[in-house]
Amino acid sequence: MTRLIDAGSPWAKLPSELAPLMRAQVPGVTAQILSRIQEEIPEYSRPLDGPFGHAITNGIEHALIQFVHRVADPQTPLDPCAEMYRRLGCGEFREGRSLDTLQAAYRLGARIAWRSMSEFGEQVQLSTATMRALGEAVFEHIDDLAALAVEGYLAAQAKASGSRERRRRRLLELILAEPPTPRQVISELADAVDWPLPVRVHVVALDPSGVPEPWLDGPILADLEGPAPHLLVPEGIELDEHLGEVLHGGRAAVGPLAALEEAAESLRWARRALQLARDGVLPDEPILRCSEHLASLWLVSEAFLRDALIRKRLAPLDPLTPRQWERLAETLLAWLETRSGAPGVASRLGIHPQTVRYRLHQLEDLFGSDLNDPDTRFELEVALRADRLARGDKGI
Hints:
Blueprint: H1 18-23, H2 26-40, H3 50-72, H4 79-94, H5 99-123, H6 128-161, H7 164-176, H8 183-192, E1 200-206, E2 221-223, E3 230-234, H9 239-246, E4 252-254, E5 258-259, H10 263-278, E6 287-289, H11 294-301, H12 303-313, H13 322-338, H14 342-349, H15 353-367, H16 374-390
Parallel strand pairs: 4-6
Antiparallel strand pairs: 1-3, 1-4, 1-5, 2-3
Helix pairs in contact: 2-3, 2-5, 3-4, 4-6, 5-6, 7-8, 12-16, 13-14, 13-15, 13-16, 14-15
């Protein structure tokens, strides 16, 4: 297809008589680009024999020749080489190299080509305006060819992935991958399956005993085939409406709202919450929301520090019998939570105020002036809550 070139295009500003001079530079620039790509991109550092070497060398050489043709005639269509670059992208996918690697090679090639063109421009004494147009043309040309290669890569990837459902699951895998997948790779695959990239998401961990039917379309991405099924739900989607219809009596834990780049962290906490619900530490609810239990999740997340705090702050209770320990700990926590006297604590615990007074006197004897220190009272409350969570007490 012939390209329409307007007067502001860099191609329109380049003298066509430069083309023959540039053509003589092609072999040397090809060798430079090929050498640097092999030096700087490990995936290409292999002997240039067979189909691999032929494809890479041919691709670089044809890119430069096509650039020269466009300088000679800005109307030169890309059609004759378009299929070649789509095949190159397809070949990259089949070789097992990532899209990010392919694009890194194009970016490096563009830098080397521009450096060579700059040296060429100095040799033939091009004006500043022409040099500027030459630089713009180099990077526009590389962008055009890279877009064709990406098109071929994604087409091969989509074909290899099979059904639309499998492509969407692959997108979900890339979003949740650790270390994180480059944003551009995710964006390109999302475009291929018509999935608008959300800014923030929830990730939902599902109990395998109640796995819902798969979503083939729509905003929710799902992986329901593995031992730990999960969903990725863009912000703003009504979860109860979707999950309530399809859980079939199972359990789901909704991870904290997170940026798309942090989706793997949301899934990690959703799975943690699901396990804590199974263990009786968090409420046994059909849809458990991490956002409603953030303090509890935090308190059980660092067992070493949690246990150290419990040992430090609750040490005065150690000499007591288990039953005494339980009663005084319960009373101390109620007192710290209510910040009231014996009647308020008694009402909270459902016991007689005189019993509370007796226990409070015992606590004063055990803890002394520490009960008057705000920082200590805070740590005591945290330690008591953490201890209950660690014991699997669903009352917290």
